[in-house]
Amino acid sequence: MILSTQEVERKAKQALTKIKPKTIIKANQLAQHLLKRILKDLPLKFTVKGRSNLIVSEKTMDDLIVEFLEFFFYNKDFPKQKDNEIFLYEKITDQELEYYARKNNLKFKPNKKDKKISELIENLARKYPDTKYGLLSSFKKLQNKIK
């Protein structure tokens, strides 16, 4: 299901608890555009490189879920969130973000993921639409316990 641009912005807004006025944010063009649309009146400074108070991760919901399952299937390290990092796209899928970027004439290229796990998730999501949200919820609960 493809969301409207307003729905993508609403989902991204839920991840913005750490942003305060005059925060210097390290983010790519897509994240900068999204943050400017959401936080219209908040004075922010953006940088692509260099020092910053906050880093916007480029991981989408799909990336987080695949990393979470790689932890179980392949015994990889548990994906952790740094204190100065936000997952702006944590509730947005690759497909939704591609659509948003295309509508706003911005670039977005999904991160590479394990094909087997990605296919497994997509097959489950076709049968059970809330699969991705359930996996993300499990990831967040486990992440809070590990901190």
- CATH class reads Alpha Beta
String of helices and strands: HEHEEHEHHH
Q: Could you give the distance between the termini?
A: 33 Å
Q: What is the H level of CATH, i.e. the homologous superfamily?
A: HUPs
Structural class label: alpha/beta
Radius of gyration from CA coordinates = 15 Å
* pLDDT < 50 stretches: none
Would you identify the CATH architecture? 3-Layer(aba) Sandwich
Global shape: globular
Mean pLDDT: 88
| Order of strands across the main sheet | 2-1-3-4
* Strand residue content: 5-15%
Q: What profile does the largest beta sheet have? A: 4 strands, parallel
Instruction: Estimate percent helicity.
Output: 40-55%
The CATH topology: Rossmann fold
Task: Count up the domains.
Answer: 1
DSSP strand count: 4
Number of helices: 6
Describe this structure in words.
By secondary structure, the chain is of the alpha/beta class. It has one domain (5-146): HUPs (Rossmann fold). It is 48% helix and 7% strand. The protein has helices spanning 5-13, 29-38, 61-73, 94-103, 115-127, 131-146, and strands spanning 24-26, 45-47, 54-56, 85-86. Strands 2-1-3-4 form a 4-stranded parallel sheet, with no helix packed on it. α1 (5-13) crosses α2.
